[in-house]
């Protein structure tokens, strides 16, 4: 029988508003905004609620500006909520209690914590001192992380000489040396090539399994979530549209892939419907959707039997899925 | 306690390494410092050539000591890394350090101290170099009490400068495009002229000097050097130290206040 | 028979001379004029593009008025402080290396005029390192526009431009207090031009270094510090610094000499020599630039 676990993260009715000053263009407008600034309130989060259990790996997905990063920043303590209840590991994050900070970690894809001109090793030693990690624990954690992420030879290289993928791996090590109970990841795979993305994802998955660290990650890359999160929260325009198992979304909504075909010669359009559902026809462009599992086969067939000049297989864009989720007004 | 010391020592060490990684840049920076002092040395030497004995209350010994002493006092008081904070705020990188279990001010103060140590090492070398080349008559302060007051004034000057830097650092909270502009205007220009780096402030007429004494700037460089040279001694020196202390308290309080306000605004605008 | 040869030779010479004269009259001068016209057109082209580039540069600064205001205030405050300090200094000491306070101030103002004009024109040089690092320099090289011109003059600084009238007015005011003769003024203006030429040569050297090594920031900072030594008349420096500043990095010629000219302390011959030196300097810098460019384009990024 499963014991009821204390929720690591509790969010109830979280609202976050931002004030934005609107500047009118031109010189007069600039002067006006100096004297009487026009303030506009942007509702970044419109009362969201969810809980996360210890050891869960959940993914926030949504388009840019949906509120994912804002949520993460509030959970890690960087932003104050406008109203609502937020608790992480029993603390109110924005108080930035040192005891709280020692148990969490935040990794933002674009903003490095590594010291640029020094070898990554120096940042690690600094974090060791800051997080007060005992020597033996430090050495064990470090060697393990370094081994898994395959960066042994790079510890002495200046961070600015590392590739983006290598840097990301070092960032993860720096963030995990103190074995945080909660790990916040904001767009961890952004800018990485496909291979590097996979490596990072595998690592995050294994780490979660091994250490039962609660991991909350945000992404607008669907593959991040397919591989990683069992539980997914779709957020858009500050509202949670879906909170549940990944399988449900995928099986329900993202079962198709889109194939774009540019034709050399005109062809009877009906022939396409044998392969997949025609979404758009505008010679020479034909767009059809096919079930994910057969996309490769369908593409092969198109290439063989049709006068194809160019062909691409694409994911159905996340925005489209979300749009559809939104349209169907899915209630949790 | 031990762990705490280790923490700050590691910060010190890492900051030191970082600055050292830019060796050439750093050496150039020191060369520029030396050039500035050189110009001042020549200038005052020329003024005091011939049979001039005294000017603005200095004799040749004292004025050249003032200029040479600048090398040290500048290294002590004005070497800092914490002006980088303005850039960190403007670029949003500040989030990384905010979430570390370390007091933000103490973190940067430690980094400043690290920079001061590095600069001092070079300052010693430059001092001897300049001394050997020029052989200026250096005035050695012999009064122990004066030396003690001199050291105290330097320590206080360090805190005054730190708080000024941090107050200017908060500008990007409200106006991120002014991250460098703010430092240019206040940290570079105001401090340069009003703290006595180019000329001892006594060359200014009394009216100006009186106004200046209501600001914290003279207490950065000018006041400590005056104590060393013995031009301010005994009771007036102690009075000056008290004014210094009050400036430290006022500025540190202002710094914390503005910083909190700035953080709040930062959050409201969601950068 | 010899006579016949000689006379025919002379006849041939005469005809050849006549032909040459006819050719020169009908083709040479028109060609010269054509070359002149072409040169003028090219000049107009570059001038027009300079205007466009400067306009863009100005728009950028004006789009952030707070930044403009802060830097403008900073520069003016710095100027006022420096003038006050020099004024009080020389007022108290009565003389600096034989110059009274007006004269010393005039040295300083000459420095400011030349330095600010250079900064106004050549601000882009300080952004050069970025272009090389990011690879944007390649994009500049590919355009049908002289890359040196682009790097040197492409980013005219609006803030400096605003301060220039202010500085020049102060310069002329203090200059008038020294009651120079018209010849003095003429020589002064001539030497200011010489000073700007030397400054141009310097900046070309700086960016040439910037192509070869990435340490252009340091080189330009050192250049600024050394020229800043020209704030005071070079007379205050002792040897070997004085010779260094006269012959190696000719700050003395660039800044001190024009001021001295206004005070009537410079002979015409000296002016000619300075002109020659500056032309030489410029020539060498251009050669160096070409050398650096060759090096860059033959290496990979």
Description:
The complex is a heterotrimer of chains A (332), B (271) and C (301). Chain A is α/β, with parallel strands linked by helices. Chain A has two domains: 54-84 and 92-251, P-loop containing nucleotide triphosphate hydrolases (Rossmann fold, 3-Layer(aba) Sandwich), CATH 3.40.50; 255-315, ACT domain (Alpha-Beta Plaits, 2-Layer Sandwich). Helices cover 34% and strands 30% of the residues of chain A. Chain A is globular and about 70 Å long. Chain B is mostly helical and 271 residues long. Chain B has one domain. Helix content of chain B is 76%, strand content 0%. The longest helix of chain B is centred in the last third of the chain and has 36 residues, at 234-269. Chain B is globular and about 65 Å long. Chain C is an all-alpha fold and 301 residues long. Chain C has two domains: 11-61; 64-298, no CATH class. Chain C has helices spanning 2-62, 65-93, 101-122, 128-134, 136-142, 147-153, 158-177, 182-212, 216-228, 241-248, 251-262, 268-298. The termini of chain C are far apart. The B-C interface holds B 24-25, 28, 31-32, 35-36, 38-39, 42-43, 45-47, 52, 55-56, 175, 177-178, 181-182, 184-185, 188-190, 192-193, 198-199, 203-205 and C 64, 66-67, 70-71, 73-74, 77-78, 81-82, 84-85, 88-89, 92-93, 96-97, 215, 217-218, 221-222, 225-226, 228-229, 231-232, 235-238, 241.
């Amino acid at each position: 029988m499963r014991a009821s676990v204390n929720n690591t993260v509790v969010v109830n009715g979280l609202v976050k508003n931002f004030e934005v000053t609107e500047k009118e263009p031109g010189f007069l407008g600039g002067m006006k905004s100096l004297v009487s600034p026009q303030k506009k309130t942007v509702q970044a989060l419109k009362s969201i609620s969810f809980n996360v259990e210890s050891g869960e790996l959940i993914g926030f997905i949504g388009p840019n500006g949906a509120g994912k990063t804002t949520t993460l920043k509030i959970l890690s303590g960087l932003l104050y909520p406008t109203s609502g209840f937020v608790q992480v590991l029993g603390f109110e994050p924005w108080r930035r209690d040192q005891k709280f900070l020692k148990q969490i970690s935040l990794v933002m894809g674009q903003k490095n914590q590594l010291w640029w001109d020094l070898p990554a090793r120096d940042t690690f030693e600094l974090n060791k001192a800051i997080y007060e990690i005992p020597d033996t624990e430090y050495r064990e954690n470090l060697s393990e992380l370094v081994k898994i992420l395959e960066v042994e030879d790079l510890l002495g290289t200046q961070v600015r000489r590392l590739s983006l993928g290598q840097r990301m791996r070092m960032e993860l090590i720096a963030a995990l040396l103190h074995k945080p109970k909660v790990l916040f990841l904001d767009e961890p795979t952004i800018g990485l090539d496909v291979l590097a993305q996979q490596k990072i994802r595998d690592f995050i998955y294994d780490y979660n399994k091994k250490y039962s660290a609660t991991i909350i990650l945000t992404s607008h890359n669907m593959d991040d979530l397919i591989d990683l999160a069992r539980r997914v929260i779709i957020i858009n325009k500050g509202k949670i549209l879906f909170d549940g198992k990944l399988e449900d979304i995928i099986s329900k909504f993202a079962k198709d892939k889109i194939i774009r075909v540019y034709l050399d010669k005109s062809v009877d359009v009906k022939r396409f419907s044998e392969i997949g559902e025609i979404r758009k026809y505008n010679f020479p462009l034909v767009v059809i959707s096919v079930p994910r599992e057969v996309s490769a086969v369908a593409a092969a067939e198109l290439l063989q039997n049709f006068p194809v000049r160019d062909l691409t297989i694409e994911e159905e864009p996340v925005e489209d899925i979300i749009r559809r989720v939104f349209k169907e007004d899915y209630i949790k | 306690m031990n762990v705490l010391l280790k923490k700050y020592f590691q910060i010190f060490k890492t900051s030191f390494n970082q600055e050292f990684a830019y060796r050439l840049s750093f050496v150039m920076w020191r060369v520029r410092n030396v050039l500035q002092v050189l110009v001042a040395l020549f200038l005052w030497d020329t003024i005091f050539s011939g049979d001039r004995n005294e000017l603005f209350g200095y004799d040749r010994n004292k004025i050249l000591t003032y200029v040479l002493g600048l090398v040290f006092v500048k290294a002590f008081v004005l070497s800092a890394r914490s002006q980088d904070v303005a850039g960190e705020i403007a670029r949003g990188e500040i989030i990384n350090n905010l979430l570390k279990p370390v007091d933000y001010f103490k973190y940067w103060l430690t980094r400043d101290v690290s920079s001061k140590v590095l600069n001092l090492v070079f300052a010693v070398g430059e001092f001897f170099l300049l001394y050997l080349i020029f052989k200026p008559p250096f005035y050695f302060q012999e009064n122990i009490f004066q030396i003690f007051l001199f050291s105290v004034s330097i320590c206080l000057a360090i805190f005054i400068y730190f708080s000024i830097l941090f107050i200017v650092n908060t500008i990007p909270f409200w106006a991120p495009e002014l991250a460098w502009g703010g430092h240019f205007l206040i940290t570079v220009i105001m401090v340069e002229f009003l703290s006595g780096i180019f000329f001892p402030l006594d060359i200014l007429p009394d009216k100006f000097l009186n106004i200046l004494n209501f600001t914290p700037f003279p207490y950065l460089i000018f006041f400590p050097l005056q104590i060393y040279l013995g031009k301010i001694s005994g009771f007036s020196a102690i009075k000056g130290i008290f004014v210094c202390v009050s400036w430290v308290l006022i500025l540190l309080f202002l710094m914390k206040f503005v910083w909190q306000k700035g953080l709040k605004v930062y959050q409201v605008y969601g950068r | 028979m010899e006579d016949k040869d000689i006379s025919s030779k002379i006849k041939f010479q005469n005809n050849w001379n006549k032909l040459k004269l006819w050719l020169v009259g009908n083709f040479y001068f028109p060609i010269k004029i054509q070359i002149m016209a072409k040169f003028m057109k090219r000049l107009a082209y570059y001038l027009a593009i300079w205007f466009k580039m400067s306009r863009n540069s100005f728009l950028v600064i004006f789009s952030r008025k707070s930044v403009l205001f802060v830097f403008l205030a900073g520069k003016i405050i710095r100027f006022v402080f420096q003038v006050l300090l020099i004024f009080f200094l020389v007022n108290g000491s009565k003389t600096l290396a034989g110059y009274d306070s007006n004269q010393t101030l005039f040295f300083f103002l000459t420095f400011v005029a030349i330095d600010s004009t250079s900064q106004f024109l050549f601000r882009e040089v300080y952004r050069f390192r970025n272009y090389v690092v990011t690879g944007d320099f390649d994009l500049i090289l590919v355009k049908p526009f002289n890359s040196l011109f682009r790097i040197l003059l492409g980013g005219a600084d609006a803030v400096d431009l605003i301060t220039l009238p202010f500085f020049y007015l102060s310069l002329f005011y203090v200059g008038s207090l020294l009651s120079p003769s018209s010849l003095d003024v003429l020589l002064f203006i001539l030497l200011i031009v010489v000073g700007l030429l030397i400054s141009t040569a310097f900046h070309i050297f700086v960016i040439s270094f910037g192509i070869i090594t990435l340490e252009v920031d340091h080189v330009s900072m050192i250049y600024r510090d050394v020229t800043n030594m020209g704030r005071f008349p070079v007379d205050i420096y002792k040897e070997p610094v004085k010779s260094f500043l006269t012959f190696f990095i000719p700050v003395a010629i660039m800044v001190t000499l024009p001021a001295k000219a206004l005070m009537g302390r410079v002979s015409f011959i000296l002016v000619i020599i300075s002109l020659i030196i500056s032309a030489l300097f410029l020539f060498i810098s251009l050669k160096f630039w070409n050398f650096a460019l060759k090096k860059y384009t033959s290496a990979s990024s």
